[in-house]
Amino acid sequence: MGFMDSFKKITGLNSDEGYESDNDYASEMPSALNFDDYDTPKPTIKSSKMMSIPATTHLQVIVVKPEKYGDAAAIADHFKNKKTVVLNLDKTNKEVANRLIDFLGGVAYAADGDLKRISGTTYIIVPVNVDISGDIIEDLGNVEDF
User: Fold this and answer.
1) Are 87 and 124 in contact (CB under 8 A)?
2) Which among 131, 133, 80, 139 is positioned nearest to 106, based on CA atoms?
3) Diameter of the chain measured on Cα atoms
4) Using one digit for the tens of pLDDT, what is the confidence trace for 129-138?
5) Least packed by Cβ within 10 Å: which of 30, 70, 119, 132?
6) Is the pTM of this model over 0.70?
């Protein structure tokens, strides 16, 4: 008996009590696994909440001929409601017309819209969901202000 055997005996590490061999459980193991006994997991289908968005939305164009600066609030309200506004300033005083353009330009800018001149004294104010394009818009870049 060597030193290690006597050490194991003294510390109790040498005893086979409480030790279970792997062979004790060999008889309990199934001889073959049968995969047919297991249910195949079914994929779960989650219903997504879909919302259809109409392809065409109702766009409205408002034509206004303001006579005084007090009309600016009503014009801004139309624009705030996502309506395109055509502003005809033919009969408007030059000073009032300049103030209206300044005010409505600020309104359009604040709402990410756009204000463009479409003829000498006619302007169009469009919300962010409307694009303006055409040759006349590009040609008017050279037209002088009132």
Assistant:
1) yes
2) 80
3) 123
4) 887 777 655 4
5) 30
6) no
